[in-house]
# Entry
Amino acid sequence: MTQISKISPISRRVVLKAGAVVTSCGFLPRAKSLLAQTPSEPHFFLQLYFQDSLDSSYLFDARPLAFTAAGKIQNYLGQDPSPWTGSNGGKALATSLTFDLKSYKDQFTVINGVHMATSFDGHEQNRNILLTGNPFGGESYLPHLNETSSSPTPLDYLQVGLMGGIEITNAASSVILRPSSAVSFSTTVQSNRDLKADDPVLAFLQGRMGSLAKGTGRFSEGSRRMLLGMEKSFGLAEKIKSADITLATGDKDLEKALKVAHQYFIKGISKAALITIDDKYLDTHGPKDAAKQPELYKTVVADINAVFTYLKSTPFDESRGLSLLDVTTVVIASEFGRTNYQEGKAMDQTGTDHDPLSNLFLMGGKGIKGGQVIGASDLDELDANGSYKGVSGAHHKLDGKLLKRMGKPFNFDTMELVKDTPEDYDGDHYITIASVVNSVYKLFGASPSHYWKNNRNGVPAKMLGGLLV
# Structure
């Protein structure tokens, strides 16, 4: 985060010229330098978050029906999966529910077996892990994608929908809006009266903040940030006024959210958007809920398909033949995966529980080599007696009852799976959420000082170099 104490003082005149959105927008963004910078090729970021966890066994990490017959994994779809082979030679087993995504196969890469928390199974802890790398929260990686940009936007990111339990400490330059609220927000800013430089309200605010900003403590630092926020708020108000968001009666919620993100991108309001899908019940602990998964995951696939369809069909620069997908990096995930079954339950009478040892990510768009399959989970081989083969000691220690799939060891230099079955766990030998985020950091040119570690006193987690163009 920018250290405000290192910024030179600003004049009263600068502040008085800057405060329109203090009253018209109702928030003061975190300060960033407004010095003229050389524009770079546009690069946006979209994260689609499925609330409550995705069961990858209904998508790209399925198991044959023989595993269900052996009492190893529930399968309410009742079909054998098919091979999904990546352009890199990586392989997965995909259910028939994914077939509607085949037309976009070259646009995204499947990443199986991503490790989230190894000590926490809760939703809140793993949501925090997903966005901050810490089960108890902290700095989100989304603002870091904006701060090193040659043309930073006033807002670091737009959030559509809520992610419960997330503790983010650097969200001052973010905004949470429903699509309808985004429309009314722009309308309100357009109709509100802009303050003039000599307005007594601004003079009063500037005087109070200026007095409070003279100290060296955190309160004074906050006051300095508010002053600089006033400086930037004029430009932000004008950008919000220019947003042309048209929501049609027949639009689904996701399409509305994408329309808002699109306008916030192209109008220079935000470089990133986090869209939460919360209209499904994916936390299928009960057998009745689990039995609905075949129909449920049809809607999941439909949402994923809708994202790529919208981005691919929405022009960004027609003169160069660029769509919105060509300038947007897309990440699709949830906070963790699901267990194979629940202990002591029959395969046709079981729900599923939380599995943070193997998560599914889909990544595509700008900067991503699409069409690949990277990583895999274990518990994928049975011997003649129907028992698992090749399970590591590390897995036994983290999940003694073998209810959870666990991502396999991975060689980041060759971008291939490792056949080792280590006795002890070392996150640096697996694809982790830190590996995924560091890959995004690399793609956006974020400072290496932000890179996540798998261990508090360790080195930054290795990125997925072969994932990036």
